[in-house]
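>> Question from a student workshop board

For tomorrow's exercise we were told to take the sequence and the ligand below, predict the bound structure, and bring the output to class. My setup keeps failing. Could a helper post the expected result so I can at least see what it should look like? The ligand is LZUJQKHR.
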Amino acid sequence: MADELKVAVLGARGRMGTAAVDAVEKAEGMELVAALGRGDSLEKVTEAGATHVVDLTIPDATETNVHFAVENGIHCVVGTTGWDADRLQRLEQKLAANDDVGVLIAPNFALGSVLASAFAAKAAQYFESAEIIELHHPNKVDAPSGTAVRTAQLMAATRAEAGTGPSPDATEKQLDGARGADVDGIRVHSVRLRGLVAHQEVLLGSPGEQLTFRHDSFDHGSFMPGVLLGLRTVASRPGLTHGLDGYLDLGL
Ligand SMILES: NC(=O)C1=CN([C@@H]2O[C@H](COP(=O)(O)OP(=O)(O)OC[C@H]3O[C@@H](n4cnc5c(N)ncnc54)[C@H](O)[C@@H]3O)[C@@H](O)[C@H]2O)C=CC1
Ligand SMILES: O=C(O)C1=N[C@H](C(=O)O)C[C@H](O)C1
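>> Workshop helper replied:
Here is what the output should look like for this input. Compare the format with yours to find the bug.
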């Protein structure tokens, strides 16, 4: 029988952390050895003998947490947002010096969201216009969502590769923010509304037609199969994997 994964959850008292603690405790082949909240020392992770960390904290804390785990030979599954290009580059350097460690940075753990983003990225090259609307609960601290940023980056890359031009837009006068944020040339609009959890629409338009990819997470349970898949896979994938699609065979 394979060794049990010894899992430490960081951000354990948050929305995602609470669900992750429950999921790990119920999962076969895993043992929850530490559950850290804000103010807890990272030493608790090593003292508990963790082999795996799940980071579900805040953008300001996640880089320190992940570097600590990598330096200590602990595999990481990261759902926290804020992993921009500079952070990813520093993490690659850290991993180069610890080359048996695996890290998964997953902007979204929900399978439907991963699929919707992959489909949207594939389709975006064929349409004149491409925009994203992401909709979340009002306690979310960052905007746009990490998922929207990643989706826009993937769409922009396929459009650039195919030679698709910029989305047409004749706007000359606007209130600040009226056209959303510009992520690699894709406009991203953020809605914060009580009652919502995590939702995204990718809108693709060409003369006479529109294609929409919409995904809805109605509760935090939607993210847990992806967290567990990440935990079960990450040790066999040394280095950095960006996006849960890296662990799936989407054939796109
Ligand atoms: N990848 C995915 O599928 C998902 C990612 N997220 C992301 O995960 C992160 C957490 O989201 P939520 O759980 O909704 O936030 P939350 O605010 O409910 O939870 C964050 C928790 O982290 C704690 N914390 C802050 N600094 C810490 C530190 N240094 N060590 C340990 N704990 C610390 C906070 O006290 C809080 O309890 C966000 O960046 C969010 O965007 C959220 C949902 C799904
Ligand atoms: O904060 C959230 O809730 C979510 N955060 C992630 C993001 O920013 O994309 C994933 C999901 O959208 C929920």
